[in-house]
Each structure stands twice: as C-alpha cells, then as structure tokens.
Amino acid sequence: MSIFFNYIFRLAAGALLLILCSLGGIVWIALALKQLNVVTSQGQDAWLLIKMTTLALPNLLAVIAPFAFLIAAMHSLNRLNTDSELIVLTASGATWWTIAKPLIALALIVTMAVAFVNHVGMPWSLRMLRSYIIQVRTDLLTQVIQPGRFSTPERGLTFHIRERTPKGDLIGLVLNDTRRPKESQAYLAERGQIVKHDGNAYLVMTNGHILRRPAGDAPADVIVFDRYLVDLDQFEKKTSPNIDYKPRERYLPELISPKPDSALFKAHPGQFRAELHERFSNPLYPLAFVLIALASVGQAQSTRQSRNERLVFGFVAATGCRLGGLALNNLVVLNPFYVPLMYLLPISAMVLSFIVIQRNAWPRSKRSYLARLHDSLIDWIITLFYKRKSAITQHHPDQTREPGTMR
Question: What is the pTM of this model?
C-alpha cells in the first residue's frame, strides 16, 4: 500500500468512527429516554435499561452506517481539496483511481459490516430485546413496585402497597386473589419483602392475616400469621414457547422459508418479502455513496463556491437515493413487481456516478461546443472580409490614397 493510500484510509476511517459514534450516541440517548419508564415506573434497574437500549441499536445502525460513511467520505475529499492536496496530486499525474482506492476499500468494509448486522446482528439483538421485554412485562416485581397504585398483572389478581422503604421492604401490603371461582382469598400484611432464591421469587409477609371466602353463603375464614411465604412464580403470566417472530427478528433461513403454520407470515407475506430483499440491497448503498462522493467532490477544485455546491449536490443525491430505496421497500410489501427496483436503484446510482467520474477525468476545453463554433464562425467572417479588402486594394490602388495628396 502506498503512503497516500494509508493517509486517505486513516483520514476517512477516523471521520467514519467519529461520526458513527456521534450518531449512535444520539440514537442511544433517544432510545434510553423512550425506555426510561422501565426504571422509573416499572421498577427495573439501570443495567436492564442499558441492555435494552443497546440491543435496539443494531436495528438502526444498519441505516445510519451508510450515511455516516457518506459524510466521512465527503468530508475527507473536501479536506483534501481545501488543503490543495488533490490539486498537487492531480498535477503530479495521478488518476482518480488513486484517490478512489482507499475510499472504496473502506466502503467494502462498511458493506460487509452492514451485511453482517442485517443477517446476524440484528435478528440476534431483537430476539434478546424481545426476551427482556417479556421479562419486564411478566415479572410480577415490576407491578408491585409503585406505592399507592393498584396493579393487576393478570385477571383476578390485584396488588397494592402503601409505601416502599429504601431497603426494598413493602409497607401496607394487600394481595387479593380471586382467580379460583370456588374460593377467593385476600392477604393483608404490615410488612412484606421480596426474596429471590434459586431463580424463584418469594414474597415473605409478616404480621398479617389471610381472609378466605368460599363460594356460597359459607362464613369467611380469617387466619392470623406472624410470617407467611407466597411463591410469586405462580402469579406470573405464562408465555408460549413457540414464538412467532417478526420478519426482522428472523435469521435468513427462517425468512426465506418460514413455517407453514406461521400466523404472521400468512397475514403479512409482503413484509417477509420486503425484509428479505432489504437485507441484500441495503449493503449496496455504501458502494453507491462512495461513487457519488467521488463524482461530486472527488475532482480538484480551486473555487470555494463550486466546492460547496458540489458538496450539497452530492449529499442531496445520496439522500434521495436512500429515501427512494426506503420507499421501494414499502412498495415491495404491497407488490412483488417492485423487487428488482430495490437493486436497480443503487446500481444505477453507481453506474451514473462512474460515468460522471470518467467524464470529469477527461481533458476538455472550458468553453462549450456552441461557444467554440461561434468563435470559429466569427474568425471565418473576419478573414473573409480582410481577403476581399485586400483584393480591392490591388485592383484600384488610386482609390486607397487619401484626398488632397499629390502624385
């Protein structure tokens, strides 16, 4: 590798990492604020919030990474132009391929990373996120954590606490269980404490009583206790072991050939088709973006205004290309006719950008063809006029002398 290759690669890679971390941090903060109720209202710890927001990042990074690479590539080329490095390089006889090689190499790395996230990272992270969400929703501890609030984790079961101490003790506990049609019972205790042992959760109540009311007109039974233990796992919601994953939560084999009994696939087959082709077409955009950047700001420029115009044009073109791909993804959900367009759009952007790069690399006059044709026509008229004047002078020499002069 040449020194210039390493220099451009390090410059673009450093900018890419900085932009990707910045955009990823902004997205992470937005996700954390969105899921903040997991800690504030549902009683989970901050570590679970960090895990849930981090697992949601790969789904968005697959879209953010190509744009981060576009900004990094255009920033690197614009910096080379500003420092007159491209002008010196072009004057030394280097071709556009010398500048393009390090950027295309970095684009290939981004392409492979996006493909890995699409096919492996995103399904794994979304499945893990689903398991955490189910854990939060089914964990009874998240339902009894709010003082002064009646919560019903499942039908026929109601919890209420008056206060929660900093140590985690529950003060003024009421538990009403009416799930059995033949018997209902209510637990009232001055103090309760949640204890976890061997993966199970138990509610230890002290100084309270149990009120059992059988069906019919039978009298209620009151049982006074000093200490009573209830297994909380019996109150948790039961989830089906066979989960019908969404298209983005499926790995490639499951997306290509879903199970025949999948209710989600029967109801929305277009979403499976769109997700499958999106995973293969999305990695093409980093390659399209690098060629768009080279076509817009990859040539040596000496005028600041022209550089700014080319920067804006290149960014708008790349953004329009990606937004068009997202729009086609929605159309593929409705009609499979648009599937080839999902691949044709980035490939067409690459071909058109390559044509522009080649056209900019050819030496050409600054004046247009019509301007040069106009100049040639004027030169021909002037030449014809002087030739005719010279011929008249030779045939009538006396007419060319000034009046009043002697022979």
Answer: 0.68
